[in-house]
Design brief:
38% of the residues lie in helices and 19% in strands. The chain is α/β, with parallel strands linked by helices. The protein has a single domain, classed as Alpha-Beta Barrel (TIM Barrel), CATH 3.20.20. A nine-stranded parallel beta sheet has the order 3-2-1-11-10-9-8-5-4, with helices on one face. Strands 6-7 form a two-stranded antiparallel sheet. It is globular and about 55 Å long. The mean pLDDT is 95.
Length: 280
């Protein structure tokens, strides 16, 4: 069982120096992971500072030595998968194999896609997501690879260096339950990062239902992560009482979440980080 911290990349956290400082604090305070959101704008109605997640995570990799990290979730539909393959492989090598790669459709569609002339339609973005994941996997392999899809074409090529982690960095897929398609997608990869439709936190019973559904569609062997992001109070025992029912139903990662509606200040986040993970 692992515990991570999960923060926005905008507002008071829209400064790479702040996020790197908090990542160092998280490693020092016993957390296992440090994850940031991947938004380019998030809200087109209220201008605010937004930091690039990949530049920030590169700095996090250089400032830490143990903690795992990643962007949750990267909207692959607005990325060029071959460029992202180079960036992520380089980052995994730089960090000694500590990158976790998260992927999803992206939200909100207008602010993240439509405003910039990108296709906001869910089905098109889902197609680009699946093609992008296939390209990342192929280019990460370090072997000869080519791809022909509806949205992307890759001529025969080989990318080196490959990521340190083999066969690849863990790939976690986002999904809003009870929509089923994202969970079928997650079954093909290495983990699921679920929320309920509208962004609510799943209950332990919800998690059990999700994992049961994923299990019906999963063919690959190996570790599969179940990742919940939520809130626990300061103090290990009180937090552990919240997390333990999830662990009993298959949870492998608990991510303590900071967001605009809760503890949306650097000092509040720092205080929660210093109090440590919700372990007994």
């Amino acid at each position: 069982m692992r515990y991570g911290f999960f923060l926005p990349n905008f507002g008071p956290f829209g400064d790479p120096r702040v996020l790197v400082d908090l990542a160092v604090e998280a490693e020092r305070s016993g957390w296992d992971g440090f994850f940031i959101w991947d938004h380019i704008l998030f809200d087109d109605g209220s201008p605010q500072a937004v930091v690039d997640p990949w530049v920030t995570l590169t700095a996090v990799a250089g400032a830490t030595s143990r903690i795992r990290f990643g962007a949750l979730m990267t909207p692959l539909a607005r990325r060029r998968p071959w460029v992202l393959a180079r960036e992520t492989a380089s980052l995994d090598v730089l960090s000694g194999g500590r990158l976790v790669f998260g992927a999803g459709l992206g939200f909100p569609p207008h602010a993240e896609f439509g405003l910039f002339g990108e296709e906001p339609d869910d089905r098109v973005r889902a197609e680009k997501l699946d093609e992008g994941l296939a390209i990342l996997d192929g280019l990460w392999s370090g072997a000869d690879f080519e791809f022909s899809g509806v949205h992307h074409q890759v001529g025969r090529t080989r990318f080196l260096p490959a990521p340190t982690q083999r066969p690849r960095p863990p790939v976690w897929i986002a999904g809003w339950w009870p929509h089923r398609r994202p969970f079928r997608r997650a079954a093909r990869w290495d983990g699921v990062f679920p929320e309920l439709v509208g962004g609510a936190i799943p209950t332990p019973e919800d998690l059990a239902a999700m994992l049961s559904y994923v299990g019906e569609h999963r063919e690959a062997a190996g570790r599969f992560d179940a990742v919940i992001n939520g809130y626990t109070p300061v103090g290990g025992a009180a937090g552990a009482e919240i997390v333990e029912p999830y662990i009993e139903r298959g949870l492998t990662w608990w991510l303590e979440r900071i967001e605009p509606a809760r503890m949306f200040s650097v000092e509040e986040a720092r205080e929660r980080i210093r109090s440590g993970p919700p372990r007994r």
